[in-house]
Amino acid sequence: MMYASQDLINEHEGILIGLTILEKMADKVEQSGIIEISDIEESVNFFKLFADKCHHGKEEGFMFPAMQKAGLPNEGGPIAQMLLEHDEGRKYITEMSSSIENGALEGNKFIQAAKNYISLMREHIEKENRVLFPFGDKIIPMDEQQQLLEQFEEFEEKVMGKGTHEKLHMLLHNFKVKYLKTPND
Ligand SMILES: [Fe+2]
Ligand SMILES: [Fe+2]
């Protein structure tokens, strides 16, 4: 039996690796200006699909409502703050996307948006892992935890399609080899 938060914490691990890769990409643009634009596009797409649509979708659609139902207030409370941060993240993703136009990269715009996104998301994940989710583990009843896990799985298949999760993991792996030079972990 596991807590529903464990699935989200596992996804945070993937997102954090993606952020380290994005940071390397931004450094590369800053230092040399030379980068394969398709790599940036694929990386932004990873955040759009995996971090936002799938992961934040699970939190907003299922996890946060379950916490609210268990008594955690939304208005003015930690959930409202998390939702604000998801919105802010979306704004930075859009900025990163629009820094590429007709195959050309607007370097400074990309670097700024990437840096903002990276620091926002690292802090956001830290808050969820250390404070919000451990609290959710305590207040959400065990039978609902199991139900949440099932809903997560269904949702993931619906929004990303079968096999997309694996493809995104492959992408992360390839980027790790290329940008972080750590093929074995
Ligand atoms: Fe979140
Ligand atoms: Fe999260």
State mean pLDDT (0 to 100 scale): 94
**Known CATH architecture:** Up-down Bundle
The biggest sheet, with number of strands, parallel, antiparallel or mixed sense and barrel status, is: 2 strands, antiparallel
Number of H/I helices: 6
What is the string of SSEs from the N terminus onward? Answer: HHHEEHHH
Bound molecules: fe (ii) ion
Work out the strand percent. Answer: under 5%
Shape: globular
CATH class: Mainly Alpha
Please tell me about this protein's structure.
The chain is mainly α and 185 residues long. It has one domain: Four Helix Bundle (Hemerythrin (Met), subunit A). Helices cover 82% and strands 2% of the residues. The protein has helices at 4-31, 37-69, 78-98, 107-139, 142-160, 164-180; strands spanning 100-101, 104-105. It has a two-stranded antiparallel ribbon. A hairpin with a 2-residue loop joins β1 (100-101) and β2 (104-105). The longest helix has 33 residues, at 37-69. It is globular, with a radius of gyration of 17 Å. The structure holds fe (ii) ion (2 copies).
Briefly say what this structure is.
It is built from six helices and two strands; from the N terminus they run H-H-H-E-E-H-H-H. The chain is mostly helical and 185 residues long. The chain has a single domain, classed as Four Helix Bundle (Hemerythrin (Met), subunit A) (Up-down Bundle), CATH 1.20.120.
Task: Draw up the topology in text.
Elements: H1 4-31, H2 37-69, H3 78-98, E1 100-101, E2 104-105, H4 107-139, H5 142-160, H6 164-180
Antiparallel strand pairs: 1-2
Helix pairs in contact: 1-2, 1-4, 1-6, 2-3, 2-5, 2-6, 3-4
The structure holds fe (ii) ion (2 copies).
